[in-house]
């Protein structure tokens, strides 16, 4: 397709053009151009460069002699590798102003630059220019070329600056001059030919009429969006634009028609298969047709969204952890007091020879230990930064497990009431994000009630007969509703409307980040559900969440400890743990259960024992070991010696999760501390029997 003066496409004769390789991967200089922060220059970020500039830079990169593209009102420089060596220091001049870069030679260069900007090409060799090379004593004598570069509208937007050393022989000089002249003419021809830009640009281009009808689109537009020419010919462009972006497009087009300058806009266009892609568009209007050039920024937007969501999750988690820290310390101190008091009385009764209440003290201590174990496991799950991992979940069971965390989020003077469906359907959600959402809502409720009030948590099965809340919402089907309601001061209609906006908060300055409800909103949406708020000032607030029903089976609730099995028959176990007291207890209990134990405190000792005292039926290793050699590395080293070695990992906390492929290997298991010694022994026997 070739564009005539008014932008109308017509058929053109076949043409062949050798494209330059992608500068981001062809050579180190191309990589430096791609990585340079162009946003600090008048050219703007590289993804927003016009097609004419990008093509000129691509061609400049494969030039056999030093050359640079000089672009824009500030004469910003984009050069190849040979060009940067002209000054002797080898430093990049990317983004510098041409007149500043060549300040010492500007008197001789300036007139030719202005001629190039007026649209006239020049090749200056008589007299040649003397170029000082910084710390290099030998200057260069060079001939210089100035060739104008035109943009999509045909105006001169910059020029190509070429440099040829004249110290070579006359024949070599003429050869280089002929090559440079041919290259400049080729570039000038390509840049002047709008059809080349239209066909070869990697950016999407389209021509739109005053009535917003799609008149023509270039091959990149069709490739990116998947539409054939026949399907979109004379289609209203508004049919392809996301409904939320249509008003912005109409305003921009009106500005063009009225002769006003319109800013670059980011809008979404519908792909042929139904999804939308983001483009950053700039346009020109010739009085009849509007020509728009768009850079596909979908990947950039998605990456920015992922980073924003990660920031929201991390920021909110830090805030909530800070709120919970005091309460968690209080709870743990209570549990430790119960354990310490029970052991103290147990010791006194044994010294007194009184055995009548010994089992009571033991049970009290075990109960406190179990509560502390549950609390630390929930806290570790809450604080971990894991990717979303949806799995079938019994909502009621999970709420009961995190009740201590919810109580801590609410505070001592808040009442928590439960109204749970007797047999709720299963849902598929990320457990950690589910817990974070509930904790955030409870923390908000405490603020709304001024730390003294009531909160109700309700679950109920819901069957939607129609779309909810409208045709664009949830489809009909089965859902589980989760309501969190408080009797606090409530919210105004304006506050409710903004409640899910990031950083919006009604709390006093310094009391909240405004990230809690947006985090809930994002989590529920990612889970395929819907969340909304009902509130009246002075009458409290209710946050409701709908999660789709999951038909997948819910895993059975894990037991506190595995049922007792037969004693071991002298199987050899290598036990690795740097905590002396715990290792001694594990060793004693495992020996009592019939194992032959060899225990060490660090990785190096473990590998030495494994090589010289093996074989072992099972290796039990802590993940965090001293000396810079972790339990993971021990396991890998051991399995290089015995690939089928069975290994049981134990850990209280690790900042680096175990690789999935390591845990997925047969004969591998993981236990989280604290655990019951009975559970440890039973797990070891189950692994040996497997």
Automatic annotation (TrEMBL):
<dbReference type="Pfam" id="PF00512">
    <property type="entry name" value="HisKA"/>
</dbReference>
<dbReference type="InterPro" id="IPR004358">
    <property type="entry name" value="Sig_transdc_His_kin-like_C"/>
</dbReference>
<keyword id="KW-0067">ATP-binding</keyword>
<protein>
    <recommendedName>
        <fullName>histidine kinase</fullName>
        <ecNumber>2.7.13.3</ecNumber>
    </recommendedName>
</protein>
<dbReference type="InterPro" id="IPR035965">
    <property type="entry name" value="PAS-like_dom_sf"/>
</dbReference>
<dbReference type="InterPro" id="IPR003661">
    <property type="entry name" value="HisK_dim/P_dom"/>
</dbReference>
<dbReference type="InterPro" id="IPR011006">
    <property type="entry name" value="CheY-like_superfamily"/>
</dbReference>
<feature type="domain" description="Histidine kinase">
    <location>
        <begin position="327"/>
        <end position="551"/>
    </location>
</feature>
<dbReference type="InterPro" id="IPR000014">
    <property type="entry name" value="PAS"/>
</dbReference>
<feature type="domain" description="PAS">
    <location>
        <begin position="218"/>
        <end position="260"/>
    </location>
</feature>
<dbReference type="Pfam" id="PF00072">
    <property type="entry name" value="Response_reg"/>
</dbReference>
<dbReference type="InterPro" id="IPR036890">
    <property type="entry name" value="HATPase_C_sf"/>
</dbReference>
<feature type="modified residue" description="4-aspartylphosphate">
    <location>
        <position position="622"/>
    </location>
</feature>
<keyword id="KW-0597">Phosphoprotein</keyword>
<dbReference type="GO" id="GO:0005524">
    <property type="term" value="F:ATP binding"/>
</dbReference>
<dbReference type="InterPro" id="IPR001789">
    <property type="entry name" value="Sig_transdc_resp-reg_receiver"/>
</dbReference>
<feature type="domain" description="Response regulatory">
    <location>
        <begin position="572"/>
        <end position="688"/>
    </location>
</feature>
<dbReference type="InterPro" id="IPR013655">
    <property type="entry name" value="PAS_fold_3"/>
</dbReference>
<dbReference type="InterPro" id="IPR003594">
    <property type="entry name" value="HATPase_dom"/>
</dbReference>
<dbReference type="InterPro" id="IPR005467">
    <property type="entry name" value="His_kinase_dom"/>
</dbReference>
<dbReference type="Pfam" id="PF02518">
    <property type="entry name" value="HATPase_c"/>
</dbReference>
<dbReference type="InterPro" id="IPR036097">
    <property type="entry name" value="HisK_dim/P_sf"/>
</dbReference>
<keyword id="KW-0547">Nucleotide-binding</keyword>
<dbReference type="Pfam" id="PF08447">
    <property type="entry name" value="PAS_3"/>
</dbReference>
């Amino acid at each position: 397709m070739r564009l005539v003066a008014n932008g109308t496409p017509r058929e053109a004769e076949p043409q062949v053009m050798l494209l330059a390789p992608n500068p981001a991967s062809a050579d180190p200089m191309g990589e430096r151009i791609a990585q340079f922060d162009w946003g600090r220059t008048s050219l703007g970020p590289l993804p927003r460069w016009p097609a004419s500039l990008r093509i000129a830079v691509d061609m400049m990169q494969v030039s056999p002699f030093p050359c640079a593209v000089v672009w824009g009102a500030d004469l910003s420089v984009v050069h190849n590798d040979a060009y940067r060596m002209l000054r002797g220091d080898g430093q990049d001049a990317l983004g510098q102003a041409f007149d500043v870069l060549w300040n010492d030679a500007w008197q001789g260069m300036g007139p030719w630059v202005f001629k190039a900007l007026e649209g006239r090409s020049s090749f200056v060799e008589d007299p040649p220019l003397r170029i000082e090379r910084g710390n290099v004593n030998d200057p260069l004598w060079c001939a210089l070329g100035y060739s104008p570069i035109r943009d999509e509208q045909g105006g001169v937007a910059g020029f190509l600056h070429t440099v040829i050393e004249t110290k070579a022989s006359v024949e070599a000089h003429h050869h280089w001059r002929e090559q440079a002249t041919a290259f400049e003419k080729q570039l000038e021809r390509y840049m002047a030919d709008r059809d080349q830009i239209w066909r070869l640009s990697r950016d999407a281009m389209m021509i739109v009429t005053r009535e917003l009808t799609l008149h023509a689109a270039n091959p990149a537009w069709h490739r990116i969006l998947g539409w054939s020419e026949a399907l979109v010919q004379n289609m209203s462009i508004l049919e392809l634009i996301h409904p939320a972006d249509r008003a912005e497009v109409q305003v921009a087009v009106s500005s063009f028609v009225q002769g006003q300058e319109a800013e670059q806009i980011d809008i979404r266009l519908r792909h042929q298969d139904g999804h939308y892609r983001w483009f950053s568009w700039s346009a020109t209007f010739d009085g009849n047709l509007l020509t728009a050039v768009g850079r596909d920024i979908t990947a950039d937007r998605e990456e920015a969204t992922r980073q924003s969501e990660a920031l929201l999750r991390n920021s909110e988690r830090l805030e909530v952890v800070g709120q919970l820290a005091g309460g968690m310390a209080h709870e743990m101190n209570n549990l430790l007091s119960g354990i310490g008091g029970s052991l103290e009385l147990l010791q006194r009764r044994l010294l007194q020879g009184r055995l009548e209440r010994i089992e009571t003290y033991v049970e009290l201590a075990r109960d406190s230990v179990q509560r502390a174990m549950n609390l630390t496991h929930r806290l570790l799950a809450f604080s971990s930064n894991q990717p979303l991992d949806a799995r079938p979940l019994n909502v009621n069971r999970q709420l009961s497990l995190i009740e201590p965390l919810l109580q801590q989020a609410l505070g001592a003077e808040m009442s928590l009431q439960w109204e749970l469906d007797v047999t709720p359907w299963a849902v598929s959600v990320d457990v950690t994000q589910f817990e974070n959402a509930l904790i955030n809502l409870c923390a908000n409720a405490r603020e709304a009630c001024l730390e003294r009030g009531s909160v109700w948590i309700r679950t109920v099965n819901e069957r939607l007969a129609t779309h909810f809340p409208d045709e664009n919402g949830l489809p009909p089907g089965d859902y589980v509703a989760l309501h969190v309601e408080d009797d606090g001061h409530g919210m105004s209609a304006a506050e409710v409307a903004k409640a899910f906006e990031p950083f919006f908060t009604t709390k006093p300055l310094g009391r909240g980040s405004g990230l809690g409800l947006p985090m809930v909103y994002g989590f529920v949406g990612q889970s395929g559900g819907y969340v909304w708020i009902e509130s009246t000032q002075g009458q409290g607030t209710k946050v409701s969440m709908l999660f789709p029903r999951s038909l997948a089976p819910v895993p059975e609730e894990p037991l506190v400890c595995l049922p007792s099995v037969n004693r071991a028959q002298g199987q050899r176990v290598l036990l690795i743990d740097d905590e002396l007291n715990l290792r001694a207890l594990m060793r004693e209990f495992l020996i009592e259960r019939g194992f032959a134990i060899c225990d060490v405190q660090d990785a190096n000792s473990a590998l030495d024992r494994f090589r010289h005292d093996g074989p072992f039926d099972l290796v039990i290793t802590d993940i965090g070991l001293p000396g810079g050699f972790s339990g993971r590395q021990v396991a890998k080293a051991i399995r290089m010696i015995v690939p089928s070695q069975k290994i049981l990992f134990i850990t209280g906390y690790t900042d680096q999760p175990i690789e999935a492929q390591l845990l997925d290997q047969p004969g591998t298991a993981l236990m989280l501390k604290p655990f019951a010694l009975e559970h440890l022994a039973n797990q070891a026997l189950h692994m040996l029997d497997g």
